[in-house]
Amino acid sequence: MAKHHVSMTVNGEPVEFLCETQQTLLDVLRDELELTGTKEGCGTGDCGACSVMLDGRLVCSCLVLGVETEGRHIETIEGVAQGSELHPIQQQLLEDAALQCGICTPGIVVAAKALLEQNLNPTETEVRYWLAGNLCRCTGYDKIVRSVMNAAAKMREEA
Amino acid sequence: MGNEPKIFTKTYKWVGTRPVRPDGVDKVMGRAAFGADYQLPGMLFGAVVRSPHAHARIKSIDTSAALKLPGVHAAVTAADFPDLPSEVSAGGEAPVNFRHVSLNVIARDKVLYEGHAVAAVAATSPGLAAEAAALVTVDYEVLPHVIDVLEAMQPDAPVLHDDLYTSGVDPRPTTASNVAARTGFTLGDTAQGFAAAEVIVEREFKTEAVHQGYIEPHAAVATYAADGMATIWCTSQGQFMVREFTAKLLGMDISAIRVIPSEIGGGFGGKTTVYIEPLAVALAKKSGRPVKLVMSRVEVFKATGPTSGAWIKVKVGAKRDGKLTAGEMVLKYQAGAFPGSPATLGGMTGFAPYDIENASAECWDVVSNRPKCAAYRAPGAPMAAFGVESVLDELAQKLGMCPLELRMKNAAKAGTRALYGPKFLDIGYAETLTAAQVHPHWSMPLGPHQGRGIASGFWFNVGGPSSAAIHINEDGTAEVVTGNPDIGGSRASMALMAAEVLGIDYAKVKPMIGDTGQIAYSFLTGGSRVTFATGKAVCEAADATIAELKKRAAKLWKIDGQHVEWRDGQAWSTLDDGTDRAPLPLAKIAANASKTGGPISGAVSINAAGAGPGFGTHICDVEVDPETGGVTVLRYTAIQDVGRAIHPAYVEGQLQGGAAQGIGWALNEEYVYDAKGRLQNASVLDYRMPVASDLPMIDTVLVEVPNPGHPFGVRGVGEVPIVPPLAAVANAVSRATGVRIDALPISPPRLLKKLVDAGKV
């Protein structure tokens, strides 16, 4: 079967790739573009490990087909830090020890960043419901939720 | 080594602090490489053909159509693996029989559960591999199956293994059955103990199989070279375990395999055995190309883990003042398709928090047509504790006694003999109860439909073989190499302990996880052993390094080595000969290493003894919605004796994570089978693990009763926290509703039915 030629931008850079019809955006990012920071936990949109931004909207990249991304703008975990300068959410997760194994962390970072971009003063409940699509099996979420709120507080001070 | 690790003082410069973990930046940036993140040039993608039946005889397997597909390079079946004899090794967290491991990795004559692997193929893309797998034809003769543990024990149940005869019963049976083993423990005389009791509570309980639920599916990349050397990059709880198991299953020398551990995206015991690694090597060998195998989430649910569902009966007797006179438990655990449930561990742990003169446990290991169970955080203990702690709660109600006081009255202390044999030395169980009593949570007011539960739990914690090597760099920084995958922040603990002993800054210590060729053997990451055992190895390696540093300082000073002391990261001369010798900092000795004998390092391999048992007590508040049967956890507090917290934030994390898993086990998680023995909820949508909006903050209290068996007093901490929650939640629901919970999960439909049946709504 002929592959499809697709052009999109990833973290601001134009990219082109060939993909099979059934390949998801997650497959494309990981296998074709070698951006393995985005993780696959379930492949059915239930765990959030593959969270990316698609034209400014938080999505599970395992639920988007590669061919659907023609002309779209994708932001992944690899684009969150500015070079080697961490985003405040990344820095705060480190300081609060809000990760254990770290497999869900890229998805949490992408999702939390999306939350704080629209609400810089979320309540605990808002953080919990926003992150309800991001499974973490290690932490019990306590330190993650606190850390997102701590990051928001720091970002408010700097804003 | 002869170098006793030392406790310098009770307050430390690094131990007990909360610095950023050394591997943290890579993990928040998406740079850390997990199992599925490896790619090699020319790599093929594998797919596994799995049984659609719960129990069937394999009449034939035909891979020819798959192999004819262009781009398909190899197919393997059990015929490509040696037919191993029964041989038991201590390689995993529990003894393993390699025949069973082999038959679980790839079925030979029979498939024993839905999802059981029967063949594997390798092709140039994942899509093509899936297509090829679908072209493999397997001719099955479907057999009757059995899922339930009690049904599997019936004499007329379908038998999984015609060579399985119950061990531990006298006389040994002459017919094969699904009952693999009976084990038991007895202390004192339970008949006498119950005769002396003034109150007796007895109840039966049931729990369902639950999965470890790590977010990272199993993944491996393997190469096999023409010289017979294999390399495996994979996610696991132990690279040495993967090496040994793969060598055994493929009939290879251990030295012919190198295993490079990736970061591990959760394991909780579920990655203490092999599933796909031997298949990847076999495919690589057949194709001559690197092969990558990654499980789907469905495969993870159907063919890995879970831990046993269980049938439990507990009976306790007590005097009116609450003093326990006797305890008895019977445990029947699902092993899955092959023997090896943690029933015995349940029997050893259930009563361990209590000083009971007369106690017994009878444990049954039973196979059925489910995936072979794997270790899951304190294997076997949570179910037994669910029974014991529920019965104690009921006893407290009957006696009109505070459940905390009842536990305090019977708490095991130093000198108490445990049912499973040993006398406890320094333990901190009573201290966790005291901490619970004074915690504000314990006295917070409750509203309507709300209840408070309390429960305790025990886990042994283990030591075992660990290796560590410390290399001093030319600038005085240090590399600390160990052989245990870092599953929850252990690199930080290793670095903190090394910094403390060496007397240098945490930032100057770089911890690393070596592959099987870079560090000596280390038993896997499990049993809550790494910070204890591997930490002990790191402390001893640091001591060996210090011994060398002192020798080098003596050489630089041209004095005898006995006149050198090590303090605060510097060598100090104790020689009183009139010469003033300024202390030599580590960096200075390192810079002069080439003049004093070459590179400076210290390496040890130990078999760590002295693991300190751990106890925890959890408090849980719930609110029950009487209209739906829904349970909301309002407040949760986890208290545990951790010995000494090296990095307290990651210790708290263990308590919080274990509590969350236990809450999921109690409220929602279960394996659901249809009449044909097929798993009905093999997705994380339908297998309902707790999400962020399901839980409250989880408060923790770290009680520190130092373990004398570790230089800093460390006890393992990872497993204890999943032991109390099942009963803590169930007791809270029981008290909120007035209906005793005797089966898990307490999901809304089940609870609603129970409330309706009891006439409560």
List the helices and strands and how they pair.
The complex is a heterodimer of chains A (159) and B (761).
Chain A: E1 4-10, E2 13-19, H1 25-32, E3 51-54, E4 57-60, E5 73-75, H2 88-95, H3 105-118, H4 124-130, H5 142-158
Parallel strand pairs in A: 1-5
Antiparallel strand pairs in A: 1-2, 3-4, 3-5
Chain B: H1 24-29, E1 44-50, E2 56-62, H2 64-68, E3 72-77, E4 88-89, E5 96-97, H3 98-105, E6 110-111, E7 117-123, H4 126-135, E8 137-142, H5 149-152, E9 179-187, H6 190-195, E10 199-207, E11 219-224, E12 230-234, H7 239-250, E13 257-261, H8 277-287, E14 291-294, H9 297-303, E15 310-318, E16 324-336, H10 343-349, E17 359-367, H11 381-399, H12 403-410, H13 429-438, E18 450-459, E19 464-472, E20 478-482, H14 490-502, E21 509-513, H15 530-557, E22 564-567, E23 570-573, E24 584-585, H16 586-591, H17 593-596, E25 600-608, E26 614-624, E27 631-641, H18 648-667, E28 698-703, H19 725-737, H20 748-757
Parallel strand pairs in B: 1-14, 12-13, 16-17, 20-21, 27-28
Antiparallel strand pairs in B: 1-7, 2-6, 2-8, 3-7, 4-5, 9-17, 10-15, 11-12, 11-14, 15-16, 18-26, 19-20, 19-25, 22-23, 23-24, 26-27
Helix pairs in contact in B: 7-8, 10-11, 11-19, 12-13, 14-15, 18-19
Describe it.
The complex is a heterodimer of chains A (159) and B (761). With 159 residues, chain A is of the alpha+beta class. Chain A folds into two domains: 4-79, Ubiquitin-like (UB roll); 88-158, [2Fe-2S]-binding domain (DNA polymerase, domain 1, Orthogonal Bundle), CATH 1.10.150.120. Helices cover 34% and strands 16% of the residues of chain A. In chain A, strand 1 and strand 2 (13-19) form a beta hairpin. In chain A, helix 2 crosses helix 5. The longest helix of chain A is centred in the C-terminal third of the chain and has 17 residues, at 142-158. With 761 residues, chain B is an alpha+beta fold. Among the domains of chain B are: 24-32 and 463-608, Aldehyde oxidase/xanthine dehydrogenase, molybdopterin binding domain (Aldehyde Oxidoreductase, domain 4, 2-Layer Sandwich); 426-459 and 612-761, Aldehyde oxidase/xanthine dehydrogenase, molybdopterin binding domain (Aldehyde Oxidoreductase, domain 4, 2-Layer Sandwich). Chain B contains 20 helices and 28 strands. In chain B, the strands form seven sheets. In chain B, strands 3-7-1-14-11-12-13 form a seven-stranded mixed β-sheet. Chain B has a five-stranded mixed β-sheet with strand order 9-17-16-15-10. Mean pLDDT of chain B is 96; it is low at 1-9. The interface between A and B is large, with 63 and 61 residues.
